[in-house]
Amino acid sequence: MSGTAQYLLALYIAEQRGSPPVSSGEVADLVDRSQATATQMLQDLETGGVLTYEPYEGATLTDAGRARAADLHETYVTLSWFFRSVLDLEAYESEAMEMAGLIDPAVAERLTELLPYEPAPTPGDD
């Protein structure tokens, strides 16, 4: 996954879990990098217009960044599902995080169509 895509996805996930701004430390944890590296990347991404960054506060996705990150998240979810359900990988989430930006959305959509459907358990079913 390109660095840019991985950081956008991590920031999107962090925003979904809590409220922005998201600290560079939280992003660093999600992408398994140092806080200094995450801070530098967030500052670089700000110049691209996909997020705003305030030192000591954190980052917030812009509308354009959120749209791109939402697309990445769909691919991430599909890959996570594939890696867990089909390949039975233990580290399915981290693998999906690494690859989400490398997969064309059309490929991810096709993969979704081919994956076995696993309905959520109904309460009371044993």
Percent in strands: 5-15%
Structural class of the secondary structure composition? mainly alpha
Number of strands: 2
Global Rg: 16 Å
Shape descriptor: elongated
- pLDDT < 50 stretches: none
User: Can you identify the CATH class of the largest domain?
Assistant: Mainly Alpha
Most strands sheet:
2 strands, antiparallel
The tally of helices reads 6
CATH superfamily of the largest domain: Winged helix-like DNA-binding domain superfamily/Winged helix DNA-binding domain
Oligomer: single chain
- Tell me the CATH topology of the largest domain: Arc Repressor Mutant, subunit A
Q: What's the SSE pattern? A: HHHEEHHH
Number of domains: 2
Helicity, as a percent range: 55-70%
Q: Order the strands across the largest sheet as they lie in space.
A: 1-2
- What distance lies between the first and last C-alpha atoms, to the nearest angstrom? 40 Å
Task: Indicate the CATH architecture of the largest domain.
Answer: Orthogonal Bundle
Mean pLDDT score:
88
Would you kindly provide a brief summary of this structure?
This is Metal-dependent transcriptional regulator. Helices cover 61% and strands 6% of the residues.
Give structural attributes.
126 residues, mainly alpha, Arc Repressor Mutant, subunit A, 2 domains, two-stranded antiparallel ribbon, 6% strand, elongated, WH_DNA-bd_sf, DNA binding, Iron_dep_repressor
